[in-house]
Amino acid sequence: MAMDDCECMQPRQLACESQGEFIGVDMSNSRYGDVWRYQCPQCQQQWLFYRVEYPSFSQSGRWFRALLDASLALDSITPADAETLLNRASYRIVGGSYYQSAGIVIRGETTLPFD
Ligand SMILES: [Zn+2]
């Protein structure tokens, strides 16, 4: 199966939280973003998954997951690295109540709405 055909490339959240490895909490701008690493069981690609929401604001829940470059030293990724890595990624999927969507593909460099 070609990597591009794998279900992990589809605009869905996947089981990043229940089956991924929790890396920690990103405290940048006091935002308490939860960060996971997830390896697709089918194609073995590595994803970075991020979830944050601001309880004082309705429809503020958002999650991002991005394909990690295979050349990255995966064990050295910290929660504070997540924003840069997710913004820089070439392929990412986002969703949540903020987007009012269960999944959208965003390609190329962008500035994701972390805050
Ligand atoms: Zn996959």
Q: Can you walk through the features of this model?
A:
- The chain is mainly β and 115 residues long.
- It has one domain.
- 10% of the residues lie in helices and 34% in strands.
- It is built from two helices and six strands, in the order αββββαββ.
- It has a six-stranded antiparallel β-sheet.
- A hairpin with a 6-residue loop joins strand 2 (33-39) and strand 3.
- The mean pLDDT is 94.
- The structure holds zinc ion (ZN).
- Zinc ion binds at residues 6, 8, 40, 42-43, 45.
Topology, pairings included?
Blueprint: H1 16-19, E1 21-26, E2 33-39, E3 46-52, E4 62-67, H2 82-88, E5 91-96, E6 101-107
Antiparallel strand pairs: 1-2, 2-3, 3-4, 4-5, 5-6
Zinc ion (ZN) binds at residues 6, 8, 40, 42-43, 45.
What are the key terms here?
globular; binds zinc ion; mainly beta; 6-stranded antiparallel β-sheet; 10% helix; single chain; 115 residues
Would you report the number of β strands?
Answer: 6
Q: Radius of gyration, rounded?
A: 13 Å
How many DSSP helices?
2
Largest sheet: 6 strands, antiparallel
Give the overall silhouette.
globular
Bound molecules: zinc ion
| Share in helix | under 10%
Proportion of residues in extended strands? 25-35%
* Helix and strand run: HEEEEHEE
Give the distance, in angstroms, between the N- and C-terminal Cα atoms.
37 Å
Strand order of the largest sheet: 1-2-3-4-5-6
How confident overall, as mean pLDDT? 94
Low-confidence stretches: none
Structural class estimated from helices and strands: mainly beta
As for the number of domains, it is: 1
